[in-house]
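Run log, item B.
One chain of 273 residues. Sequence copied directly from the ordering sheet:
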Amino acid sequence: MIKLLILGPTGIMGRLITGLAINDDEIEVVAACDVNNIGKELGGLLAIKDRNKIKISDVNYLQKVIDETKPDVAVDFTVAKATEKNCLICVENGIKCVIGTTAMSEDFLSKFEKFVEKRKAPALISPNMATGVNVLFKMASILTDYLADWDIEVIESHHHRKADVPSGTALTIAKTICDTLGCDPEETLKFGRSKGPIKRKVGAKNEIGVHAIRAGDIVGDHTILFAGKGERIELKHQAHSRNSFASGAIRAIKFIAKQEESKIFDMKDVLNL
C-alpha cells in the first residue's frame, strides 16, 4: 500500500486526484495539506467517501504532518511558489514526489534535482500527465525529423483563469522540437508576434512560433502546425476533461513508488515512450 500525502487537495486538480486516490485499493491517503479549509474532513469537503476520515492540515506545518504520518509519496498540483517550498521539504525527508505544477523556476529545478540525488528520493515532474499528450510529445519529435525544413508553430488554448503563459505543455512541445532540430530554444522560440511588418524567418531551425489563447472554460488544446510548400500537417490534442490528467497522476504515483534510482523521471518513463 502506497502511503500518499496530497498537497493542495482542494484545488481543481487536487480534488480530482484526491477522489481517485481515496478510492484506489493500492493507495492509502495518510495526509492532505492546504492553506484553505484547515481542520475540515477531506471526504466531506469534496463530497467523496473517505474511509480514513482524513482532515486537512495546515501546509505551514508540513514538517509536523510528515513526522506524524510518514508518507511514501507526495503529489503536488498547486502553484509554483508553493511547490518550490513544499516539495523541497518532502524530498529532504526522503519522500518521493509527483509534481504536475507548471512555471517553476530553473533555479528551483536545479536545486530540486540535487536534493533528489542527495536524499535518494526519486521524483517525477511533468507539465501534463495525460497519456495522449505524452504520445503527442513523441509524435512531435518523429514528425520534426522528417519535416525539419518546414515552418513549425505551436498553438495552445486554455481557460481564462490560467495564469502561466504559455502553458507548460506548449513549452515542452516547443523544446522537444528544438531538441530534435539541435537548436537553442532561447534563440529559436518566438512567443507571439508584435504588430507591424515583421517577416517570419523561414524554417523551423530559424524560428518556431508559440502562441497562447485564453478564453472561456477551455480545458486544454494543443496544436502543432507543420507547414511546407503547398501542404501542411496539424497534430492536435484536445483534453475534454481534467480526468485524463488526474488518472495520469495516479499512474505516476504508482510508478514513482516503485523506483529506487535517485533521479527525476517524467511521463515518458511511465508510458515507456
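Observations after the first pass:
- The chain is about 40% helix and 25% strand.
- The CA atoms of residues 12 and 242 lie 9 Å apart.
Flagged for discussion on Thursday.
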